[in-house]
Write a structure and sequence with these properties.
single chain, 3 domains, alpha/beta, five-stranded mixed beta sheet, Rossmann fold, 15 strands, 497 residues, 17 helices, six-stranded mixed beta sheet
Length: 497
């Protein structure tokens, strides 16, 4: 016996099972044997505890029988997930003393059955995070689907295997759980059945919601903001980027630094413990605030250095062009093609985080400075936008913005609006801008596969006066180069090169 619990007529309180954490096995390695004072059947609490705590089995002994009378018990154990069926099997009532066979073979057969119920696709490396994505929104079904698809891409960028997703559109949000408690229990049980290690919410959770949801399960619980912060922590390579990311992470974590220690290690460890990590979560609020103040001073110094570099560029009288756009639109690829440089590119969201600056030479000894900035995304965390404001300040010096759009993305019009909204928030909406539709080399195939989307691109391109290019093909960039030249040197004669 590992635990002895004394309850009352209303129930028992199961302690924190820290000595029996959920690990590689499907079940925890603990069975719960308890009494029912009135001989009642297994209760909903019994079945919830079985499912949420992944107990080997739950056994209820009828304590209402007279002395020396036969004692009866009822047991239940988990079964593999099946549509429209509960995750457990309730066994018939048995008389104590008539049960034969050892417990170990019985529970081993239960665990073998559960393991077979998991698909081969989920048999991944132990260190790989496996997630259920959850969206609780009042947006339209189409908007909710678009947002969850983007969350899937964010998860892929963070190296998370997505097992499933859940979209709920409630009449009203729960201040405690965001979604209804019953629905959340279903999601948690489904996640445990499928072998998930974390829940990722598409909406930003309040500190209270994170604590209450985490209190229900040992799964990690993070939201969209923390996922983006985690990706940024992976991608930051320069000192500027690293300082800004850590500052944003600490500001995000500070109001959430309450509750039990174990909960906090589960709640704030991030994905694989990157970024500030669990060690920083064990220190008190004062030390967190001290660290934030130090990082802000360091960021101010770095900002001063950036100002000096920007002043040098301004003094050089060279026009400055900044490439802006939604993440994964192809900004770094365009910079590489224009300047024949080798900025890192990959088909991931936020593949590059730090600003890159290059010179671009035009005919007749003309030159411009061209910069590639961090990509934008919907629901960008306020803490992150605030921390990166100093980096994005470089856009203030730009004489021209190139707004690059991946026109093959089904949500390209929404992405254009998201970028425009962020530019407006940064006070940059009055900058001169060239709208550029990227990946137009795929339009021929798109016309065959999705003619409606093709017509939407054609209509938008004509109405908005967009320049069409393929950023990975220098031959298609001539119209863009011509537009850039006209903006700065309208009287120059165009060169065929």
């Amino acid at each position: 016996m590992e635990y002895v619990i004394v309850g009352d007529d209303r129930g028992i309180f199961i302690p924190e099972l820290k000595d029996f954490p959920l690990g590689k096995k499907v079940l925890r390695g603990l069975r719960l044997v308890h009494t029912h004072l009135k001989g009642e059947q297994l209760s909903s609490d019994d079945l919830s505890d079985l499912s949420l705590l992944r107990l080997d089995c739950v056994v209820a002994i009828d304590a209402s029988v007279p002395q020396n009378a036969p004692v009866f018990l009822q047991s239940t154990h988990l079964v593999p997930p099946s549509p429209h069926s509960p995750p457990y099997r309730i066994n018939p009532t048995q008389q104590l003393g008539t049960i034969t066979g050892g417990f170990s073979p019985y529970i081993q057969s239960v665990e073998d059955e559960l393991l077979k119920g998991r698909s081969a696709a989920q048999a991944v490396a132990d260190e790989t995070e496996r997630a259920i994505l959850v969206s609780v929104t009042k947006a339209t079904a189409e908007e909710a689907t678009d947002s969850i698809e983007e969350l899937k891409e964010l998860a892929r960028t963070a190296g998370i295997l997505v097992l499933d997703h859940v979209i709920q559109r409630p009449r009203q949000f729960s201040p405690k759980y965001l979604m209804g408690e019953g629905k959340l229990r279903e999601v948690v049980i489904s996640a445990l059945q499928s072998g998930a290690t974390m829940l990722v919410f598409d909406q930003e959770l309040t500190p209270t919601q994170v604590r209450t949801i985490s209190g229900m399960t040992e799964l990690k619980v993070i939201d969209r903001s923390q996922l983006i912060l985690d990706i940024f922590a992976r991608r930051a390579t320069t000192l500027d980027g690293k300082v800004q990311v850590e500052l944003a992470q600490l500001k995000y974590l500070l109001p959430r630094l309450t509750g039990r220690g174990v909960q906090m290690s589960r709640l704030m460890g991030g994905i694989g413990g990157r970024g500030p990590g669990e060690t920083k979560l064990e220190i008190d609020r004062r030390r967190i605030r001290d660290r934030i103040a130090k990082l802000e001073r360091e960021l101010a110094k770095l900002s001063d250095n950036r100002v000096q570099r920007r002043q040098k560029r301004v003094k050089s009288s060279l026009p400055i062009i900044s490439i802006v756009g939604y993440t994964n639109a192809g900004k770094s690829t365009l910079l590489n093609s224009l300047t024949q440089s080798h900025v890192f590119t990959e088909n991931l969201l936020f593949a590059t985080l730090d600003t890159s600056t290059r010179r671009l030479r035009f005919p007749q000894d003309r030159e411009v400075i061209i910069t590639d900035t961090v990509g934008f995304i919907r629901s960008l965390p306020k803490s992150l936008l605030g921390a990166f404001r100093s980096t994005l300040e470089e856009l203030n010096d730009a004489n021209l913005l190139i707004h690059l759009v991946d026109c093959t993305n089904p949500r390209f019009m929404e992405q254009i609006k998201q970028v425009e909204d962020i530019l407006r928030e940064l006070g940059l909406d009055n900058k001169e801008m060239i709208l550029v539709f990227n990946k137009c080399d795929r339009l021929a195939d798109l016309k065959k596969m999705n003619p409606l989307h093709f017509m939407k691109i054609r209509k938008a391109s004509h109405a908005m006066g967009a320049v069409e290019i393929a950023a990975n093909d220098r031959k298609t960039l001539q119209p863009l180069l011509e537009q850039m030249r006209i903006r700065f040197w309208p009287t120059d004669i165009s060169d065929s090169h």
